[in-house]
Structures are given as C-alpha cells and as structure tokens.
Design goal:
The longest helix is centred in the last third of the chain and has 19 residues. The protein has a five-stranded parallel β-sheet, with helices on both faces. The mean pLDDT is 97. It has four helices and five strands. By secondary structure, the chain is α/β, with parallel strands linked by helices.
Length: 107
Amino acid sequence: MKFIIDAQLPKSLSEFLIFRVFDSIHTLDLPSKNSTSDKEITAIAINEKRIVITKDNDFLESFLLNAQPEKLIVVRTGNIPNTILFKIFDNNLELIISMLSSCNLIE
C-alpha cells in the first residue's frame, strides 16, 4: 500500500508508515515541497496509485465531485500532538488498511 501525506500533517507520519513497512512520501519529499498544489498531489496519487492522507477539505470536495484522488483518508483530529496522532494511527492501522480494501474514503 502506498501513501502520500499532505502538508498539514507532519513528515514524521510518513516516516511512521514507512517504519510500518508501507511506501509513503510526504509533500516535503516533492520538488515543490509543501507548496505542491492539490492538483499535483492528486496527479501523483493517481499515477502512482497512492492514497492521500490529508486534513484539507479541498481533497474531500474533489473526491466527492470528481472521484479524485481515487482513495482518500481525511484526518479530523484538529490540532493534536504528533504522539497522539501516531497513537491513533497505530491503534487503528489494521482497521484502516482493512477498510481501504473496500472503501475509497475514510474520515
């Protein structure tokens, strides 16, 4: 499973997923870094079959209106410490992966 993490989330979330043996990149890994447009992120996600993980409502609107990106995880935690974010992902990773096999949107 391959992920692309949007700028509103920490690069360490991508590193966390890599540690869990997933292929993950963060916008900071891209040439335009965190200035990479949503359109570019979506194109990368489509071309590389990556799941976008974001807090950005623009991705949700694009998904609902255009079915792009193909798979999307929208994080709705508000501003929380990274340790809590990682704990949420760690505690729910199996469920998230399982849901992605049958769902294209997880909020």
